[in-house]
Amino acid sequence: MIKFLTKAFALTLAFLVAGCGFFEDEVPEDIFFRMTGPSGSQVTVIYSKQFVAGVNEIGETRVEVFGADTVVHTLPIDTIIDVTLEQRLFMMATPVMPTDTIEVEARVDVDGRNIFLDQGDLLPLVPWQFLYQYNVTFTADLEVII
Hints:
- The strands form two sheets. This protein has a five-stranded mixed beta sheet, with no helix packed on it. The protein has a four-stranded antiparallel beta sheet with strand order 4-1-6-7, with no helix packed on it.
- 12% of the residues lie in helices and 53% in strands.
- The chain has one domain.
- By secondary structure, the chain is mainly beta.
């Protein structure tokens, strides 16, 4: 009887643990990036998964990019980036024309969960920047070295 109860308890425990998501993989797979603004406006976006980032003693996040792709997009941007291996992504956007100021809305989702949503002006000398690294918290104040 004790052997039966032990097996029943173990089986019940196994079902409970399997059903609660304890063994689910939380590692990010895809980042969905969307930027909207005036239709036809062009934006240069730098995408990188090859960088080093850290927060210094004064609370400034420093990002040193050592490999990147630069893409000229026509708004709206709607793309998915696979981050399964690197588990990180840095993006920086500026208007293509150095005299343009573009009002944009940017949205970033990780595996369907929204982690960033904001709108504002995209200025030539003040780029829009986004930094994501799995299980790491950074400050909003970024210093970028490319």
